[in-house]
User: Fold this.
Amino acid sequence: MQLASLVECLQGMELTDAPDERLLTLSGKPYTSRSAYAALDQVTGTPDAHGRHIWTTRVPNKVKIFAWLYFKDRLSIRTNLFAKHILDDESCQRCSNATEDRLHVFFGCPTSAELWESTALLSDTEVWSANVPSHLDTNLWPFVLLTILWRIWDARNGETFRNEPSTSRRILSKVCDDLVIWRKRLKLDSDVINSRDWHIYLLSCNSTKSSI
Ligand SMILES: [Zn+2]
Assistant:
C-alpha cells in the first residue's frame, strides 16, 4: 500500500544535478518552523493564540517549552502519567485532597490557589485575560504569567521529588527574583521600566499576604 503510494508520487519526477530544496506543500515556500505554523494557521483558520503568546514572550527558552507543554496539557502531571499507566494513583501528593490534573496543580492546590488569591490577577483559568491593575502594562502580562506558571511548576516538582516544602510566599518571591534577572531580556526600554512596576506590585502582594 505504502509502496504503491510512493511509486505514484515518484512518477513523473526527474532528477537533476540542482541542489535539493525542501518546500512546504501547503504554501510552496521553503520549510521553516515559522512558515509551517503560518501555513497550518491558514488551513485551520484558527491561529494558535497560545503559540503566538508563548514564542514572542521574552522568557528563557526552557520556560517557553514548559509553557508549550502546559497549554498542550503534556506536562508529567499525575493524571497524564496515570493515563499512560505509569502511575496507579492520580491523587495529588501535596494536599492528598484531589486528583492532580493540570488545573489542580496550577490553580486548585492550596499553595497555588493562595498565590493567585494574593495577586488578584485572575478570576478564572482563562489565563491570557488577566485583571491587570490599571497602573501596570498589560503587554507584559504574558511575560509575568509564564514566569508565575514556571515557578508554580518548579515548586510542585521541588516538593514532590526533592522534599522541598513550598509556600505561596516563597513562590512569589522567586517570581520577583526572576523578573529582575530576566528583565534584561526585554527589548524595549519602556518594557524594562514597566517590568519594574510589575516587580513592585508582586512584592507588595507578597508583603500583604496574611498566611503561610
Ligand atoms: Zn494538591
